[in-house]
Design brief:
By secondary structure, the chain is α/β, with parallel strands linked by helices. It has helices at residues 2-22, 31-42, 44-66, 71-91, 93-104, 111-116, 184-192, 210-226, 228-231, 245-261, 272-275, 300-305, 315-323, 331-336, 364-376, 399-417; strands at 128-139, 142-151, 164-170, 196-200, 233-243, 290-294, 350-355, 380-385. The chain contains 16 helices and eight strands. It holds the Pfam family BD-FAE.
């Protein structure tokens, strides 16, 4: 009887671990399973434990059955062992693939943190003295807001008590969804390192909204710089950081602002495409010092022709709504809306972060942009985390989160804070 109970418990645990772990390597047939893949990949240390425990219980049941128990207990026991070991093997993929990336980019990687980080309070919370929501603009009757995270003087003594560098955060959501401060813990983490963080809204409807959304980001940056004294921000040390669709908008805003400010700029304000990269409010300067993109689309024509997992997101339909047509009917807009189009020698330093198993925006987006940045001589860094899914950084203490935190901190220190 005891052997049967052990076998059933082991099989249940092993099957549950295996079901979660399989999506680490198998493309998801549904959006919900794609989200499960993010958690399974970043919390794989727990799946390793669960799989090992299931295998152990199954082995104990099989040993008991071998001593005179029933045949079904023996079969259940060994099935538990096989499933548990399979889950454990799959759970090893993320840390094994993360380790060389972490070594290359000088990032510490802690299995203990990967397991317990979500259970321990963040010490960066204490650095936030105020989080306020303000309206930064009203465009076409719609108020645009931003959440402002401000540090205490004790959070980073190296920054001193004066004007601080700022990071403007742009949320994702396929250009028609999402909301500001979706990753508040990341904002607090930045605050703890001496930055003032502005997590901003942009217009999601009506679509096509590529021009409006980009203009809103430029408006937000320009407004923050114009009000720098109020926020104790150094207007010469402002960076953009975006995720997914927000990564695309951050890149496009940063690149077109630099393009517009260049002495040899070829932007024609009378051209309909160029009008789409103008701020949506009156600001004198929307240039930034650097830009960080988490898994943002960069080449929209290529992205339309090479969609990611169509069972997870209809990438072509998303682009058609965002841009108002297909590459055949609106090719000029696709080109104008692609950050790859706007790479120039004066393009700001760029950090590109992407998961190798991204099922929403292929990692080639970052690789293609990196190639153009290399040719143009723009300072840049690309971090490709082979096992990681789209949105891997939502698990703050996961394998990928640990890698990119070290990289983002070093990049901003070098190009913005210093």
């Amino acid at each position: 009887m005891m052997g049967g109970a052990l076998g059933i418990a082991g099989l249940t645990l092993s099957l549950a671990a295996l079901f979660c772990a399989v999506w680490i390597v198998v493309p998801a047939p549904h959006r919900v399973l794609a989200l499960l893949a993010v958690g399974a990949s970043e919390l794989s240390a727990w799946l390793l434990v669960a799989g090992g425990a299931g295998a152990g219980l199954g082995a104990a049941a099989a040993v008991r059955a071998g001593g005179g128990g029933t045949a079904w207990v023996l079969r259940v026991g060994w099935l538990s062992v096989l499933c548990g070991l399979g889950a454990a093997g799959l759970a090893l993929v993320p840390p094994l693939q993360a380790r060389p990336v972490a070594t290359t980019h000088g990032a510490p990687l802690s299995p203990l943190r990967a397991m317990t980080g979500a259970l321990t309070p963040s010490d960066s919370d204490a650095a936030v003295t105020a989080m306020s929501t303000v309206t930064y603009a009203a465009v076409d009757g719609q108020a645009l807001h931003m959440d402002v995270y401000r540090p205490s003087h004790r959070s980073d003594a190296s920054s001193g008590p004066g004007a601080r560098p700022a990071v403007v955060v742009v949320h994702g959501g396929a250009w028609d969804g999402g909301k500001r401060s979706e990753q508040a813990r990341w904002n607090r983490w930045l605050v703890a390192r001496g930055y003032v963080v502005f997590d901003v809204d942009y217009r999601l409807v009506p679509q096509p909204n590529w021009a409006a959304a980009t203009g809103d980001i430029l408006c937000a940056v320009g407004t923050i710089k114009a009000q720098a004294a109020h926020w104790s921000v150094d207007p010469a040390r402002v960076a953009l950081l975006g995720r997914s669709a927000g990564g695309h908008l951050a890149l496009l805003a940063a690149y077109t602002a630099a393009e517009a400010g260049a002495a040899d700029s070829t932007i024609d304000p009378n051209d309909a495409g160029d009008q789409g990269v103008r701020p949506s409010c009156s600001v004198p300067d929307a240039a930034v010092r650097a830009v960080v993109s988490f898994y943002g689309p960069t080449d929209l024509i290529w992205g339309y022709e090479h969609p990611a997992n169509q069972r997870v997101i209809d990438g072509r339909r998303t682009l058609e709504q965002f841009l108002g047509g297909t590459p055949h009917t609106a090719r000029g807009i696709y080109e104008r809306a692609s950050p790859t189009t706007h790479v120039r020698p004066e393009t700001p330093p760029t950090l590109l972060l992407h998961g190798g198993r991204d099922q929403f925006a292929r990692s080639q987006h970052s690789e293609r942009l990196a190639s153009r940045l290399q040719v143009a001589g723009v300072p840049h860094e690309t971090v490709l985390v082979p096992y990681a899914q789209h949105g891997f950084d939502y698990v703050f203490d996961g394998w990928g989160g640990q890698i990119v935190q070290a990289t983002v901190a070093r990049f901003l220190e070098a190009h913005v804070k210093g």
